[in-house]
């Protein structure tokens, strides 16, 4: 009898549990990170995600329940428990969305809603897209989307531009944690390279103001990076993958691994990536202004100018980087879970290539200019709970700590003194978000956010000849603090089957204190503090009169509170100009209106278009000023024009985005993307000038062929010209970065590249990808960039899953 009972239990387990394999319906490729949920009695419960070979174990299959399989850019697939139990193959084939009108996107912090219900334009990249694009840095990855413009001051860089804004007017987030800190500057940033593209599950970019849900800095948009998903399974398993990548233009070598364990209540994910770049080779065909004809061989007061044997090689541009991520997931019950995430990124020295091109009196100005090793560390603990309470159905609370370390080092040509500035920022924060569904037509999302920044800033100069050290002025007031507390509320109302309305409001309060030491500059103040608040909101509506037509519109406001970098920094913004603190700065606001349309004709093609207009009545800009009654100041041995940051400009930005998707056959698709931006700011004399971060017209045309286990992509990528008349004043003063037109004025020539990608899944466990980039070997430099893009570049990568 006992043996019969054991046999019965074993048979029942086998009969009512299944291991499901999820694949692409066209290529047959396994899909990692597919979200699996069960719907029973109108209640949806997330079960977890498929592993790196597309498998997911369902311990107990409810025959009367419905199971859903969701993956970004694929159609939502539903199947009943009865069908799963009756199936002999246990394979779910997901169809790619022919078009994206009804896609699902994470909006806000945690909860999903239809793309057709979001009143803003959203850029999405799935794990599958990220793997296919096959780029070594997250900056390069975003640029390849054809919807985010990327500026680079050096190869170890990448500063996104969205809708005329960049740097601290864009908000970077990873797994719901804001990366922006107290010293994010208005100039170009390169913090995005700290995010490892090989650890990402997806990227969502919400364009336009996003301050209501995300707070300060979300002026031009929010870039959300979500790392690999992990979940539990009743049958313990260990999975992983190993990858390697090499490319020719910078002799890049990359490699890494991911190892994942899933158990009944516990799961863990470990990943590591190493990337190394040598000096970058630019293209052969293009302006001679970009050639690297000479460089400085640093040797103290005996520095030498060396003629470059190959001017296509951009000497002193290489670097390397390490990325490590550890995740732990614990599920004490089906209604609650804990996730701990540790992220660590460390670079080598990052040569500031654009600064190494500067000249003074016809001579290269710097022998050395580099960022020291950049460190970023994140510890985050997230608690999620599902419940049936009057005040919330779901809750998410996240505690986090971040550590940033960066430094700047420069030495003028044949000068014995190397100037060094060191910064460290500690950030601690708490986020709490709650979701409540009221009936079938109302969804509420509300929450609060608290964070604080502590800044440590030191500086010295060291004689490379005598090896002596002297203190110099720090970049920021040492011990400065910058913090915020805010609360928000969002209401989604499904007015009818075809009309959805979204409204939201937020209040944020900022407090900051800075103490100035007058050892080097006789500031007219000893302490500066800010204590201000910002109220902003948004209203959007989506109308879907027919299944193939979607209309949307929204009005919104955003804000950015001045941070420590705005209010307290002393630095040289450009050759011969120095910026000094201004304690009178106020928050800057943006007001935005936009409208969009998506229309598809049968399964043949889909058109998408978005138009927007934004204005900032009190934009923070650099203006000439005075310090202690003088308009000049001696800074690091150079007599420089004094400037301050002021709420002095009225800025406007308008533009649009156009897309076209065409299905020629089931296996062949055509893609078109076009971005257009125009921005102006009012100058002191009442005239207007181009806005610095308004990108030129850019986009791409692509042709995709996909069949069985192979995918081929051909692309024409283009950027429009920025004439000398359309160049922002701050860019005109940087001729070392630009080509010269027929009148000897700096400008950005139009350029294009032709690229190809091929990915082949050899077996279920082995995938090989190749890229052929810039096939015509064009020599070009993106707008506002200080380093030329790679010339002809061949890439090969391989991934082995187990």
Structural features, described:
- It is a single chain.
- This protein is mainly beta and 802 residues long.
- 6% of the residues lie in helices and 55% in strands.
- It contains seven helices and 54 strands.
- The strands form ten sheets. It has a 22-stranded antiparallel β-barrel. Strands 10-16-17-14-15 form a five-stranded mixed β-sheet. A four-stranded antiparallel β-sheet has the order 3-2-5-6.
- β42 and β43 (605-624) form a beta hairpin.
- It is globular.
- Residues 1-15 and 100-111 have low confidence and may be disordered.
Helix percentage: under 10%
Indicate the low-confidence ranges by residue numbers.
1-15, 100-111
Please state the average pLDDT score: 89
The gyration radius over C-alpha positions equals 27 Å
Span between N and C termini? 41 Å
Which overall shape is indicated by the principal axes computed on the Cα atoms? globular
Strand content: over 45%
How is the topology of this model organized?
Elements: H1 2-15, E1 18-24, E2 35-40, E3 43-49, E4 55-58, E5 66-70, E6 77-80, H2 81-86, E7 91-94, E8 104-106, E9 112-114, E10 122-126, H3 127-133, H4 138-143, E11 149-151, E12 159-162, E13 165-166, E14 171-174, E15 177-178, E16 200-207, H5 211-214, E17 221-227, E18 237-247, E19 252-262, E20 266-277, E21 280-281, E22 294-297, E23 304-307, E24 313-314, E25 319-333, E26 336-347, E27 350-351, E28 359-360, E29 363-364, E30 366-371, E31 375-386, E32 394-412, E33 417-438, E34 442-463, E35 469-471, E36 481-494, E37 499-515, E38 527-546, E39 549-560, H6 564-568, E40 571-574, E41 577-579, E42 588-601, E43 605-624, E44 632-635, E45 638-663, E46 668-682, E47 688-690, E48 698-707, E49 710-719, H7 729-732, E50 739-740, E51 746-747, E52 751-761, E53 766-773, E54 793-801
Parallel strand pairs: 1-7, 14-17, 41-45
Antiparallel strand pairs: 1-4, 2-3, 2-5, 5-6, 8-9, 10-16, 11-12, 12-13, 14-15, 16-17, 18-19, 18-54, 19-20, 20-25, 21-24, 22-23, 25-26, 26-31, 27-30, 28-29, 30-32, 31-32, 32-33, 33-34, 34-35, 34-36, 36-37, 37-38, 38-39, 39-42, 40-41, 42-43, 43-45, 44-45, 45-46, 46-47, 46-48, 48-49, 49-52, 50-51, ...
């Amino acid at each position: 009898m006992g043996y019969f009972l054991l046999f019965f239990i074993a048979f029942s387990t086998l009969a009512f549990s299944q291991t499901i394999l999820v694949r692409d319906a066209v290529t047959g490729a396994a899909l990692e990170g597919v979200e699996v949920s069960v719907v029973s009695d109108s209640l949806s419960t997330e079960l977890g995600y498929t592993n790196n070979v597309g498998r997911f174990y369902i311990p107990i299959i409810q025959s009367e329940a419905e199971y859903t399989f969701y993956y970004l850019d694929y159609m939502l697939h539903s199947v009943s428990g009865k069908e799963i139990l009756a199936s002999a193959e246990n394979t779910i084939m997901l169809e790619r969305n022919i078009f994206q009108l009804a896609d699902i996107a994470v909006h806000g912090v945690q909860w999903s809603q239809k793309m057709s219900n979001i009143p803003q334009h959203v850029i999405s990249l799935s794990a599958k897209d990220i793997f296919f694009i096959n780029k070594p840095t997250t900056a390069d990855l975003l640029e390849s989307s054809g919807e985010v413009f990327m500026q680079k001051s050096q190869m170890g860089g990448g500063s996104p531009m969205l809708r005329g804004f960049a740097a601290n007017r864009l908000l970077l987030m990873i797994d719901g944690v804001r990366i922006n800190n107290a010293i994010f500057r208005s100039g170009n940033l390169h913090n995005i390279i700290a995010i490892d593209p090989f650890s990402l599950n997806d990227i969502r970019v919400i364009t336009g103001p996003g301050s209501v849900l995300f707070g300060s800095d979300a002026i031009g948009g929010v870039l959300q990076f979500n790392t690999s998903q992990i979940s539990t399974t009743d049958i313990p398993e260990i999975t992983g993958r190993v990858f390697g990548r090499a490319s020719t233009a910078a002799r890049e070598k990359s490699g890494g691994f991911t190892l994942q364990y899933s158990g009944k209540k516990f799961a863990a994910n470990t990943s590591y990536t190493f990337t190394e770049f040598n000096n970058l080779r630019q293209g052969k065909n293009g302006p001679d202004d970009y050639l690297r004809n000479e460089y400085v061989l640093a040797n103290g007061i005996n520095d030498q100018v060396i003629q470059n044997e190959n001017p296509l090689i951009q000497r002193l541009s290489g670097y390397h980087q390490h990325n490590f991520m550890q995740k732990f997931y614990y599920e004490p019950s089906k209604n609650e879970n804990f996730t701990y995430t540790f992220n660590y990124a460390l670079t080598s020295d990052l040569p500031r290539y654009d600064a190494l091109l500067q000249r003074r009196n016809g001579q290269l100005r710097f022998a050395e200019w580099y960022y020291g090793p950049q460190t970023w560390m994140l510890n985050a603990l997230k608690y999620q709970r599902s419940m049936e309470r009057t005040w919330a159905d779901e809750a998410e609370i996240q505690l986090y700590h971040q550590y940033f370390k960066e430094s700047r080092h420069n030495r003028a040509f044949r000068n014995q003194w190397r100037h060094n500035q060191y910064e460290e920022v500690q950030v601690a924060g708490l986020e709490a978000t709650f979701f409540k569904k009221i009936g079938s037509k109302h969804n509420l999302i509300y929450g609060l956010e608290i964070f604080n920044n502590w800044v440590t800033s030191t500086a010295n100069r060291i004689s490379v000849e005598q090896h002596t050290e002297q203190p110099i002025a720090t970049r920021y007031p040492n011990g400065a603090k910058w913090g915020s507390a805010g609360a928000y509320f969002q209401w989604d109302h499904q007015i009818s089957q075809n009309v959805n309305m979204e409204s939201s409001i937020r209040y944020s309060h900022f407090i900051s204190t800075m103490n100035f030491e007058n050892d080097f500059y006789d500031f007219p103040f000893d302490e500066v503090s800010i204590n201000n608040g910002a109220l902003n909101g948004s209203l959007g509506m989506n109308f879907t009169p027919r299944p193939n037509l979607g209309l949307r519109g929204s009005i919104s406001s955003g804000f950015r509170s001045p941070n420590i970098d705005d209010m307290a920094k002393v630095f040289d913004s450009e050759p011969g100009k120095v910026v000094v603190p201004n304690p009178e700065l106020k928050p800057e606001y943006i007001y935005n209106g936009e409208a969009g349309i998506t229309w598809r004709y049968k399964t043949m093609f889909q058109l998408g278009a978005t138009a927007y207009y934004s204005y900032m009545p009190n934009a923070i800009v650099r203006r000439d000023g005075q310090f202690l009654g003088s308009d000049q100041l001696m800074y690091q041995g150079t007599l420089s024009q004094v400037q301050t940051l002021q709420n002095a400009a009225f800025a406007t930005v308008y533009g649009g985005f156009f897309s076209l998707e065409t299905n020629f056959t089931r296996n062949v698709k055509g893609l078109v993307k076009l971005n257009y931006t125009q921005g102006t700011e009012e100058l002191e004399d009442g005239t207007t000038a181009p806005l610095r971060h308004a990108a030129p017209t850019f986009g791409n045309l692509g042709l995709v062929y996909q069949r069985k286990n192979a995918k081929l992509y051909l692309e024409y990528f283009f950027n429009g010209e920025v004439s000398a008349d359309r160049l922002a004043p701050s860019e005109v003063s940087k001729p070392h970065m630009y080509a010269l037109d027929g009148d000897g004025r700096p400008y950005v020539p139009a350029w294009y590249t032709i690229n190809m990608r091929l990915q082949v899944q050899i077996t279920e466990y082995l995938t090989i990808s190749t890229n052929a980039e810039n096939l015509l070997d064009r020599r070009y430099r993106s707008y506002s960039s200080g380093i030329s893009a790679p010339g002809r570049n061949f890439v090969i990568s391989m991934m082995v899953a187990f």
